[in-house]
Specification:
Layout: E1 22-27, H1 31-46, E2 50-51, E3 60-65, H2 70-89, E4 94-99, H3 100-105, H4 107-112, E5 118-120, H5 128-136, E6 142-144, H6 151-155, E7 168-172, E8 174-175, H7 186-190, E9 194-195, H8 198-210, E10 215-219, H9 236-243, E11 251-255, H10 264-272, E12 279-281, H11 289-294, H12 301-314, E13 319-326, H13 333-346, E14 350-355, H14 373-398, E15 402-410, E16 417-422, E17 427-431, E18 440-448, E19 452-457
Parallel strand pairs: 1-2, 1-3, 3-4, 4-5, 5-6, 7-10, 10-11, 12-13, 13-14, 17-19
Antiparallel strand pairs: 8-9, 15-16, 15-18, 16-17, 18-19
Helix pairs in contact: 9-10, 13-14
This protein binds 5'-deoxyadenosine and iron/sulfur cluster (SF4).
């Protein structure tokens, strides 16, 4: 462990000891960003830093950013504005902007917010501790945006410390995306697909299990593309089969999946492997063929439907969730309604819904037929209303069934209730002893809600 440089440490008058410098990470966006933040946190902790309870107490603040829509980018600039006062009152403190927006906007961030010390692109998370050291020894500011595809970012150092691991942990298995859907900025800011070698993933999973994890979610912009870029072409279904027998691994989840890459091997693995949970997140984006073509999604509505039928046929109790975007350029009222009809027919268990947001440099952004914002927002509301109705109806059909719940701990709403997740990833709340946290419990689902279920534990 390195000794923290003097200028950052606050002198502790009572003991004369130099407390560890503290960092605070604000994460925007998706689960991959959460995983990248936890990687940076582990690396900083190994280098002698400690996580601060609040941004005020920090010697280093990192904003880990998202670029997928315009709004989270505005939020980053407004947060940077708010942090100007913090920076003024802590002249030795450091401010870093990392991740997708850092990659996209680069030097522009420093032009608009000159108090930023480090701009760190999406292939540089694993170097955070070194870059911070460099800036502290006078080398400032630093902008790292190279996309050379350094595979060590994809790989992650194994073990990542000896601290207790969460009951449910996220493990990135593939980074980047090579799909270039016409609206999406991800391939530009995260670069092409880079998979971690299977051994590396197995090692990290075993390390997490030793430290208390029982459920692992395999992460990637498209986990089903796993292995295509590696020399011996391991597959995602193969990876599931490798992980399934590892002792103490109770549950495997994965997200997110491109429908075009669903194979019979994947469906068989989901049907056969006891640890693989009955849930798939399969972004549909639109439900009409011309829109899907313009989005460059690579499937038709009928093909998507056929995949869903195969999945539901082979995996009993499967929950199907999705991402849907409305107001893509040129989307007519008829196309939107046709999409709604398809969603009504499919009946997703839940959907993340978005209004199209033009992203610089994408193919869709250059189209002249942008849908007025007001229309996009109205369609979004109609979609949300429909999906809420479907979610309630589907959950309603689950009432009276039994479910296996992995207990997270006390529910946020208190009242002596515990919260956990069923295998299909739906939230379940029930009365119980907090000592049950971390265990598997059988319950009967008694009440359906939009957010999940109330339930009663089964005795014995
Ligand atoms: N505008 C709105 N939503 C978008 N998404 C991706 N790009 C855009 C965009 N330009 C949505 C997609 C994707 C999810 C992560 O974000 O639905 O699946
Ligand atoms: Fe974006 Fe399409 Fe890649 Fe998903 S599959 S990250 S929507 S380009």
């Amino acid at each position: 462990m390195k000794t923290p440089p003097r200028q950052l440490a606050h002198n502790d008058a009572a003991t004369g000891a130099m407390p560890d410098p503290q960092f605070f990470i604000m994460t925007f966006g998706c689960q991959m960003n959460e995983a990248d933040s936890s990687l940076m946190a582990s690396l900083l902790e190994r280098a002698g830093w400690r996580e601060a309870d609040s941004s005020d107490a920090a010697d280093l603040i990192i904003l880990n950013t998202c670029s997928v829509r315009e709004r989270p980018e505005h939020k980053v600039y407004s947060t940077l504005g708010e942090l100007r006062a913090w920076k003024l009152s802590n002249p030795h403190a450091l401010l870093a902007v990392a991740g997708c927006m850092a990659q996209r906007a680069g030097e522009e961030i420093r032009r608009r917010a000159p108090h930023v010390d480090i701009v760190l692109g999406t292939r540089w998370f694993h170097r955070i501790h070194e870059l911070v050291d460099r800036v502290r020894s006078g080398d400032r500011p630093i902008v790292c945006l190279g996309m050379e595809g350094d595979p060590s970012t994809a790989r992650r150092p194994d073990a990542l410390g000896v601290a207790a691991a969460p009951l449910r942990a996220f493990v990135p298995i593939i980074r980047g995306c090579s799909n270039f859907c016409s609206y999406c900025i991800v391939p530009f800011v995260r670069g092409p697909e880079v998979s971690r070698p299977p051994d590396d993933i197995v090692r990290e999973v075993k390390s997490l299990l030793q430290r208390g994890t029982r459920e692992v979610t395999l992460l990637g912009q498209n986990v089903l593309a796993y292995g295509r870029d590696l020399a011996d072409k391991p597959t995602f279904a193969g990876l599931l089969r490798t992980l399934d027998p590892i002792p103490d691994l109770w549950r495997i989840r994965f997200t997110t999946c491109h429908p075009r890459d669903v194979t019979s091997h994947l469906i068989s693995a989901m049907a056969e492997l006891p640890t693989v949970c009955e849930h798939i997140h399969l972004p549909i984006q639109a439900g009409e063929d011309k829109l899907l073509e313009d989005m460059r999604r690579g499937y038709t509505a009928a093909e998507y439907l056929a995949i869903v039928e195969q999945l539901r046929g082979r995996v009993p109790g499967l929950a199907l969730t999705t991402d849907i975007m409305v107001g893509f350029p040129g989307e007519t009222e008829e196309q939107f309604e046709e999409s709604l009809r398809l969603y009504t027919r499919i009946e997703f268990d839940a959907a993340f819904t978005f209004a199209y947001s033009p992203r610089p440099g994408t193919e869709a952004e250059k189209r002249p037929d942008e849908i007025p914002r007001q229309t996009r927002l109205e369609r979004l509301q109609r979609l949300i209303d429909l999906q809420n109705h479907i979610t309630i109806a589907r959950n309603g059909r689950g009432v009276g069934e039994e479910a296996e719940v992995l207990v997270d701990g006390p529910a946020a709403r208190g009242d002596g209730l515990l919260a956990g997740r069923a295998r299909n990833n739906k939230q379940v709340i029930f009365p119980g002893d907090p000592a049950l946290a971390g265990s598997l419990l059988r319950v009967t689902l008694t009440e359906a809600h939009l957010w999940g279920f109330r339930s009663d534990p089964l005795s014995g």
